[in-house]
Amino acid sequence: MMKDYFLGVHQQELERLDRQHLAWQPETQQLIQDAQLANCERILDLGCGPGFTTFELAKQCPNAQVTALDKATLYQQYLQHQIQEQQASNITPLHADILDLPNKTQLYQGAFCRWVLAFLIADLPAVLKSIYDKLEPGGTFAAMEYLTLDSFTSSPPSDYFTAYTQAWKAYYLNHSGDANIGTYLPNLMREAGFTITSEKCVGGLSPVGHRWWFWWRDAFNNFAPTFVEQDLMTQAEFDGMAAYWDAQEAAGEGFIYSAVILQVVGRKEK
Ligand SMILES: C[S@@+](CC[C@H](N)C(=O)[O-])C[C@H]1O[C@@H](n2cnc3c(N)ncnc32)[C@H](O)[C@@H]1O
Fold this sequence. Notes:
The chain is α/β, with parallel strands linked by helices. The protein is 43% helix and 23% strand.
């Protein structure tokens, strides 16, 4: 049986992924446009989760058949249900592990992934090579991954906020992931054969009430209890951070600067 990714596969995470999609929807839509995926007839959405990116692709690329690949059974079931509900005939679910891509025969003109490769660090060169191999000549691969969590900071400053960010970094590293993947992803894509056609960074200033403010607070609510259990944060840091969110929201003042997210597009030359 395939092992689930370490953020977890359950209803609470599914709902968080939905809210996360809304928090980053304009930037995701822009990436799909920048990569000109609407010109493709077949697109592979790698690590599609419950399918929020898949439906975005299907909407923006109405002439494409979108294959939605994920290894999580619950997310594939949810996606199947959504396909039926919305009569989305241009989406095909594919319950599979990305590591099995070399065994698949279908070729695509476009490939897309968001917040997936950071979970595949040990296999990254091989995964990028297999994505390259599954594209037709002239095909395009667009990825949206953390550049770094190190840009996260808050105003007014807070040691609790710093502790929370450090806990996230450690959580990735302890599970063989890496939230700084974006710093070396373009080079690995080049090594896999891609020509990089676009690199962009998104994220940044998020005043109280901004969609990225709520995104990061939401992640706190969902994951910080686990960080305390795993000794990545102390209970005092957790309590201090919970109070910080409340105090800033009550005052309606202050901001965070978010993680920087890399959007990179590579082409397989003809
Ligand atoms: C953070 S979620 C992102 C989901 C979606 N891309 C989005 O942006 O909403 C990461 C997803 O990658 C999937 N995943 C991680 N490793 C995988 C692998 N080796 N094969 C297939 N899916 C994988 C997980 O099951 C999970 O659904």
